[in-house]
């Protein structure tokens, strides 16, 4: 296996044009080996402190996705169970990682920021109260399952959260490009659900016949928690 210095050297000689248009293949082994050594910064000033006097266009890291709302309505003569657990399923397939040059001030060497952009689609299940309701269960072919009486059933609402977050900075285009690919690999792997996690609160109105879900997301802080990410990767 290539050592860290070899991988970093290869990345740092990649031209701006190639890095902007081509993906650089990485393996999970390289993620484990290289990610902690990148030293991604949380601020522009941390990324390349020499000569940096202020933030003019780089922006700042933001690890939370603004919550969105979706509304579920109970059928007539049903009400929601306000004390039951709620469930959420979400997809990260609509996300991508980009690298962009930016400047911390008018004289500083360009800094490279790493952004995650796109959307997260989700669906939320809110259980209905089960008292005095008849239930039944059927197979995928429409055959009723004997002696099966589901005790939990729900209404759902669906939505999509817009993602446009800066998650780190680097002084080198090579380092930023490698980080982009490593983070993209995380999102495509079994670690994606721990890398981006949901927040969910549900409120009820209309005598518990209307459920309004507020759904947000948190992105793991790659610029300060790379060691933790690597530890999780090692378990896979």
Could you name the key traits of this structure?
236 residues, alpha+beta, 4-stranded antiparallel sheet, 3-stranded antiparallel sheet, 7 helices, 7 strands, disordered C terminus, DUF4489 domain-containing protein
- Estimate what percentage of residues fall within beta strands: 25-35%
SS-based class: alpha+beta
Count of distinct structural domains: 1
Count of helix runs: 7
Element string (H = helix, E = strand): HHHHEEEEEHHEEH
Helix content: 10-25%
- Spans of 5+ residues with little confidence (pLDDT < 50)? 10-26, 225-236
**Mean pLDDT, all residues:** 78
Measured between the Cα atoms of the first and last residue, the distance is: 19 Å
The largest pleated sheet is described as: 4 strands, antiparallel
Q: Would you give an account of this structure?
A:
It comes from Clostridium gelidum. This is DUF4489 domain-containing protein. With 236 residues, the protein is α+β, with helices and mostly antiparallel strands. The protein contains 7 helices and 7 strands; from the N terminus they run ααααβββββααββα. The protein has helices spanning 4-12, 16-21, 28-34, 44-47, 173-188, 192-195, 226-234; strands spanning 64-73, 87-91, 95-102, 111-127, 154-170, 196-205, 210-219. A hairpin with an 8-residue loop joins strand 3 (95-102) and strand 4 (111-127).
């Amino acid at each position: 296996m290539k050592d860290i210095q070899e991988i970093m050297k290869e990345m740092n000689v990649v031209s701006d044009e190639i890095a902007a248009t081509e993906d650089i293949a990485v393996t999970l082994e390289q993620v484990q080996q290289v990610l902690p050594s990148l030293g991604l910064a949380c601020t522009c000033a941390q990324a390349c402190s020499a000569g940096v006097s202020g933030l003019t266009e780089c922006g700042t890291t933001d690890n939370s996705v603004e919550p969105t709302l979706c509304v579920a309505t109970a059928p007539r003569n049903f009400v929601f169970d306000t004390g039951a657990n709620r469930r959420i399923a979400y997809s990260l397939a609509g996300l991508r990682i980009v690298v962009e040059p930016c400047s911390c001030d008018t004289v500083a060497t360009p800094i490279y920021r790493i952004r995650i952009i796109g959307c997260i689609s989700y669906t939320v299940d809110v259980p209905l109260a089960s008292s005095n309701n008849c239930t039944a269960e059927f197979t995928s072919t429409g055959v009723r399952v004997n002696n099966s009486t589901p005790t939990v059933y729900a209404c759902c609402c669906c939505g999509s959260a817009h993602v446009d977050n800066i998650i780190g900075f680097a002084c080198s285009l090579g380092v930023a490009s490698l980080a982009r690919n490593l983070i993209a690999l995380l999102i495509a792997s079994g670690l994606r659900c721990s890398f981006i996690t949901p927040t969910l609160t549900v409120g009820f109105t209309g005598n518990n016949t209307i459920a309004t879900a507020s759904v947000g997301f948190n992105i793991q802080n790659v610029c300060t928690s790379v060691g933790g990410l690597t530890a999780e990767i090692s378990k896979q």
